[in-house]
Amino acid sequence: MTDTEGRSSFVVKAFAWAGLLGPALALAADTPPIAIVIHGGAGVINRSEMTPARELEYKAGLEAARDAGYAVLERGGSALDAVTAAVHSMEDNPLFNAGKGAVLNHLGVAELDSSIMDGKTLRAGAVAGVQHVKNPVELARAVMEKSPHVLIAGAGAEEFALEQGLTMVPNSYFRTEPRVRALEKALRNTNPGSALNMSAPAAGLDDAKGTVGAVALDRDGNLAAATSTGGMTNKRPGRIGDSPLIGAGTYANNASCAVSATGDGEFFIRAVVAHDVCALVEYKRLPLDAAAKEVIHTKIESMHATGGVIALDTSGHIVMDFNSEGMFRASRDSLGRRDVAIYGNR
Known about the structure:
disordered N terminus, 346 residues, single chain, alpha+beta, Glutamine Phosphoribosylpyrophosphate, subunit 1, domain 1
């Protein structure tokens, strides 16, 4: 939250307490804050490919996911339910690299990863390398709530999904024409596993690294975070990035913050990005925006990597920070904030 937003919030509450804005607004001022922040991936977002019509499509998709999560919070639902709803929405939208529309590995197969974490209890669940689960975030949550484990991968995860009655689909369900073209382009230009070569040609909208994620704060003051991805185009079969790793791509703790990360996964794993942001808040007492800046603009940049984070604390402070050209993102809170952006500050 900016200083201006903070002052505006104080003014609204002051007038509400004085009874100058009516009893309804006075009641709203005393209601605990709710908020949700989402992202649809960060990285090289080629402006030449972002036509006005396509930009509107992306923003509509972000707004739909954000509002799906916010509706849960608004009716008194939990932060866990809110992040699940928001990520589920993006997994169903073929524009984003998660669920339907996920990028393809070297063999042309979609392999999906997801994770979720409850800031109140520190419970977490994650899945990696699933190929037939329609909504991996639902499976990650089932792992958290209905198994003694945190992370289940591959065939074992899919067997568990069947046991839980989750919707299964053929792998072809995830394939889209743009992702097929992106793989064909990658196969012409690179070898599998060479995506870490920072001198590789810049990716376009359809073959950029990407992830989707959400963080939320509910009326009870609880935080949650969730992340889902198809990984990177032309990845080696079996490659797992930061998204399903608790502490790297996802972390939530009511004592600090909730974070979902997106970017160069191999570097985000080594930097333990999501937990690092929360640790700076909890132990070093940094403001949330300063903690995110320290991790993204100092630690990650020193590793010559790019990406970003969305973050939220129990006071409702919202952060969406990145060092890449853009990050698909949106937020909404009970103080009236409602935004969506792709580049810089728009």
